[in-house]
Each structure stands twice: as C-alpha cells, then as structure tokens.
Amino acid sequence: SVLYMVKHLKHILYKLFKIRSVPQTLPHNADFAFSLYKKLSTHPEAKGKNIFFSPLSISMALSMLALGAKGNTHSQIFSTLGYSTLTPDQVNEGYEHLFHMLGHSQEAMQLEAGSALAVHEGFKPVDKFLKDAQHFYEGEAFTVDYSKPEVAVQEINKYIAKKTKDMITDMVKTLDPQTVMMLINYIYFRGKLEDPFEVSLTHEFDFYVNENTKVTVDMMERTDQFDFYHKQIINTTPQTFTNLKYFFVFSFVTLFKISAFISLQETLQEMGMVEAFSGAADFSGLSEDNKLMLSKVLHQAVLKVNEEGTEADAALIVELRLLSGWLSEIMVLNRPFLVFILDSSTRSILFMGKVNNPTDAVAGTI
C-alpha cells in the first residue's frame, strides 16, 4: 500500500542522512513531504498520472507566509508543515541556515533557491515582515501593478522564467482583481553524472504502466555496481527493506521529461491549513491596514533525465488578496516508480514524485 511504502521509504532516507547537525526544520520537512505526497497520490485526478513536486519549495514559501500570520492562522500553517513543536525563531533561523547551505554552484552541479515578494503598487506591507522575509528567506521585493492583470502576469512569469532558466515560463495564467501580493519561491537544480550513460546504449524498451498497458520508451543502460534496497519476507516478520551493497547489475533507467502543475488550496485545507483561505484569516503581521486572505497556492515542477544527468525546476506562488466582508470560505525501471532528488549537504528532499507513464510529458493537474 501507499502508506506502507511511504513509511519504509522515510525510514531508509532517515538512515541514509543521519549525519552531522542540520537545521531543526529538516526532519519536519521530510514528514511534510511524505504527508503531502500521500495526499496528492490518493487524489482521484492523480490516478495513473505522474506526480512531481518540490516539497522544500512549498515548505519555504509557506514558512515565509507564516511571518505575516498570527493567531490560529499561524498555528494552522505551522501544524500543516509539522512545526508544532518548533518556535518561529527556530523555523526562521533554520531556513536562514538552509538557504546558505543550498546556494552553491559547481561544474557538475548547480543548485539555486530563493524567494520574492511581488507587491501591488500602493500596498504597504508591515516593515518587519519585509525585513524578516529578506533576512531569513532571501525574499527580494518588487512592485507590480495588479490593476493591469495582463501586464502583471507577464512580469511575474518573466521573473519566474529567469530564475528557473526558462524551464517554467508561463506559470501564472490569470490574476484575482483583488490581488495585492504574491509570494514566490523557486528552486533550480542541474546535476551532471560523474559517469554519464553511453548514448549509443540507449534503446527502446517496454515500460509497463499497469497490468494491461505498456508503452515504448527510451531506456539508458549500464553495467556497474550499485547500492540498492529490496523488499523481502523474513520468517513471520512484516515486510522489510534490506540493503544490498556493491552488486554488479545491469541498470536500465528510463529517459524522460515530465512537468507537473498543482493547485494546492484544497490539499492544504485538508491537511489543516483552513483559516488562511477564509474570512477568518489573520495576516495582520503582513498588513496592518488591510484584511487579507489566501486565494491561490500554485506549484509547478519540471524534471528532465537524460544520459548526461538530471535537471529539475520548481516554483511556487502564494497569492494574497484583499478580503471583502461578503466573501464566504473557500532498478529495471519498467514499471511506475518513485523519484527523489536529495541535497547531500542538508539532507533536504528537493524534489519528489512518482512516474506512472514516462511518455506522458505533462503530469496530472491536481
């Protein structure tokens, strides 16, 4: 089952990355990543579809949003992210540390993360919110005229495209006319394999989407030694994952590119973040003069895997709008497989998802 699989994958990842001291938010971020994956994977519209997202991008953006939330609104955001046992200072300082650790670029690997605040001309956020967003989340602020939606959409999409190296170019389609601010988060990852696959060994193979469906895909091939886990039955004990190291095996890895677009409003409310999307929302730490609520939380992620390596991008938009009083609440990978991109220096889950059909370039819209 999904619950059983996720439980044991969490255990494996914790074992792999239990090394030196890291920000206090990281274990909670891993829990949130798997909780969100379970929600998304059981959504009716996700059945049989590819799933791909950046849990870290989502956690970063919602944690930055929490800077401006108070009361029950703040508590629900922290509870949804799994931060109930942490103080705001611990969370903010954890992300400050994390941003410093993530920002590195080398010839074989490039990893960039950052945040931004697209503020409506004439709207003045609380100074402390702006300073904390910049200090802890590297949130650069720029003004946008939301009274001209087409121009605003173009400016925001241009910003996201620049930060994601043109992998995400038209994330924002429309804007609520009452929008006064957008919180943006982005993560860009590009990693080259130390030992690339031989292009000449890439051939067509069958990929079994399910018992009744198979598709033809390009598969990369290599004979090498790998660490891998497999599931087995030991006497009467429950199923466990066993680590087998340094076996020479034939590796057939699917060559693919997928893009996923997720609207997170409903999912976050199901996970407990209800008040932020309602008339009861308290974002007085963000604006003292205006009553605000969330109208959209949009996430897009792109993953490309080929013989040379992996490239992945993610962006998240949190749209805040003015609240009107009358508004109501609102190994041979030839079968589906999970995919993770992990940062070894921070033990962060940068990206995760499930590839059900590698020939379907567009993941399920949830």
UniProtKB/TrEMBL annotation:
InterPro entries with a match to the protein in the record: Serpin_CS, Serpin_dom, Serpin_fam, Serpin_sf, Serpin_sf_1, Serpin_sf_2
Domain (Serpin) ranges: 34-358
Gene3D superfamilies: Alpha-1-antitrypsin, domain 1, Antithrombin, subunit I, domain 2, Serpins superfamily
One protein family per Pfam: Serpin
Gene Ontology annotations for the cellular component aspect, listed alphabetically: extracellular space
Molecular function via GO: serine-type endopeptidase inhibitor activity
Family membership noted in the UniProt record: Belongs to the serpin family.
Entry protein name: Serpin domain-containing protein
Protein source organism: Astyanax mexicanus (Blind cave fish)
